[in-house]
């Protein structure tokens, strides 16, 4: 299990590319503080469900509250911080 | 039903019309994979990254067709399996994650009507939208639906996008291969019909037609079609001749035959029976070009329209100089599902 934050960021980005099929991107192409659901990556509502599945499968985190989800799934930094605080695997 | 426009992605270079102009690809492969064009200018990246091959190929054919023709009054598709690869992924996920949280993309993309739905969304077309999944007669069912649609709207000009799509899934290919539907030894498609073994080679692709009930500026027309799933071997000749009689035609009225011979010695005798009815008629064996798949009769129809318009004549055996005006397609799948399609200039 990766515990170092920088390593976790890279690992999460690799999962993000795999789950969302962003095959023309490398982890370094995704900025940590750029909103995922905006102009940059152009993710949409189906991607948000894919992200919830990612967090469940890879880190044992279940997001059930939509309001909570909107605060977590903002950018790479917010998601990785949440993983560090709440992961069960 | 008049064909105003058509386009195809197939294991030959139909996407840039090289195939039609004589560039025939020799295939020495177990799987005849479709040659896909670049989709970057056609499909937004956000949608393209999610698309399975069937949806991608289907969109790659439909968007150029819709781009150069008025908005159709309906979208009708035939597919036996739809997005099979995504379907298998989704089913495997159910097992792997013990029926827990599943990703939506594989499910959304794997439904057979995902393609027709996405075409409607991207082209903002809220009209009649149906996908037929009647196995190896799925395209014929779509054809019947289109015919009924035009019958229902005979008093006004109507237009339809009619198509078919099939993709190869590795998982299903292996099952079909174990079931001896596909050959275990490798033979070039040039020698496919002389292979003297069971099975054929698996193909894939998407073929689409832009149809209208207005004959003006049409390339050809679907004159008639017929299907059967309950024929005995000694009934095929009568099935064909009765079909011609229903159209007030005889064997001599057919200028060119398109036959689905696929090199499978266990079932090719059906085609030989039909060939015998027509003597030394100019013939095209279209599966040498694209292999066997369940909606391949759509590709045969595509090829017929090209032949009727002076293209791809190099494929005609026993008469490359003929200028056909009436073409009969006979195809069967596993010698169980048979179809006849009559296409005329």
From TrEMBL, chain A:
Superkingdom to which the source organism belongs: Bacteria
UniProt cross-references to Pfam families, sorted A to Z: PP-binding (PF00550)
The protein's name: Acyl carrier protein
InterPro entries to which the protein is assigned, alphabetical: ACP-like_sf, PP-bd_ACP, Ppantetheine_attach_site
Domain Carrier: residue ranges: 7-87
Keywords carried by this UniProt record: Phosphopantetheine, Phosphoprotein
TrEMBL record, chain B:
Matching InterPro entries: Ketoacyl_synth_N, Thiolase-like
One family name in Pfam for this protein: Ketoacyl-synt_2
Domain Beta-ketoacyl synthase-like N-terminal: 38-173
MF annotations from Gene Ontology: acyltransferase activity
Protein name: Beta-ketoacyl synthase chain length factor
Organism, scientific name: Fluviicola chungangensis
